[in-house]
Amino acid sequence: MSIISHHARAAADEIKTVFDFFSSYRADAADGQVVADLTFGNPHEMPLPGLVAALKTHSEPQRTDWFAYKTSEEDARGVLARALSQELGLGFVPEDIAMTTGAFGAIALAFAMLLDPGDECIIPVPGWFCYGTVLRNGNAVPVKVPLAEDTFDLDLAAIERAITPRTRIVVVNTPHNPTGIIYSRERLAELAALLTAKSAEIGRPIFILSDEPYRRIRFDGAGFTSPAELYPWTLIDYSYGKVLLAPGLRIGYLAIGPLMPEEAKAELRALATSTQVAQGWTFPDAPLQYAVADLEALSIDIPALQAKRDRMHGALEQWGYRMTRPAGTFYLWGRAPGGDAVAFTRRLAERGVYVMPGTLFERPADFRISLTGSAEMIEASLPAFEAAKGNARA
């Protein structure tokens, strides 16, 4: 008889592939050499000077309660309500914002507030590999629905087939990890119409959780539409860890869509703080909340990131790789030569280059490159990619 809970075991099983990869992915390196680690979205250069300055400034106490218990601080919420209203063209108010430990914390908060045991949440495949483990930990059911083959757009017919009377949330991640696709306003409007009709059929609203941590990382002047602009029953999660390339600083938020009916907004506002307390006081640390106005003004160098995308994408396509050209995020997604992602990533690892196999995204023939490595790392990795493609042909 196991001593642990069934839901904890189910959550562990959902994330096991990722943890196994994380603990062993450098094992195939020759003599432990590392030419380029292009797996996770981690920084490989020193942080933004403005970020360091903000942390120093706001870590210096200005009054006796500087490091007292914090929930969602009013100043931070006010900054974000104004910024979101301007960015998305919607009327957010401070009460709409819950400060969280990154987008991860915001996603967990949304699931906890909306899902009862046995409720279903539709999640995209390929997609972020932590949705399922958070859902299982809450005794909810992840329903994995494939994106459209080749284009990786939302497959509305597949979503419609997956909806049941237990469906409570549809996760929409745009710009999308791992493919970099940004969903069009037209496709999101079609999704809104579908969910409106299905909600009426079921007799309760189906929510969209709009997962937007890469919202400000877009290329070639690409636009962005949040589902909150089109569908009233939308919650938005966001993280500063992406746009600042500082995932170890855990600050983000969950925002209630302003078009939601007032009665429903009031329920969610009243519930958010107590839910975060129940989850283990999952509010960002005090200095990070004080720094929100400074963080809002900072960003990694998007043109430099686009240049890395162009260099890597152009080289791989030149050698015959089948790649998706990302419109946003800092990832590059493609088909593994030979159709075996694990074998392909091992060939790269033998040359000191590490990428993520698509098995972590339930796509065993694909792979993901993180472009957060330096330009020098990107350049140094290219011979390994050329050689690995040649080996696959042989």
Describe the structure.
- The protein is an alpha/beta fold and 394 residues long.
- The protein has 2 domains: 136 residues, Alpha-Beta Complex (Aspartate Aminotransferase, domain 1); 237 residues, Type I PLP-dependent aspartate aminotransferase-like (Major domain) (Aspartate Aminotransferase, domain 2).
- 42% of the residues lie in helices and 15% in strands.
- The strands form 3 sheets. It has a 7-stranded mixed sheet with strand order 2-8-7-6-5-3-4, sandwiched between helices. It has a 4-stranded antiparallel sheet with strand order 9-10-13-12, with helices on one face.
- A hairpin with a 6-residue loop joins β9 and β10.
- The longest helix is centred in the N-terminal third of the chain and has 19 residues.
- The protein is globular, with a radius of gyration of 21 Å.
- It starts with 5 loop residues before the first helix and ends with a helix.
- The model has no long low-confidence stretch (mean pLDDT 96).
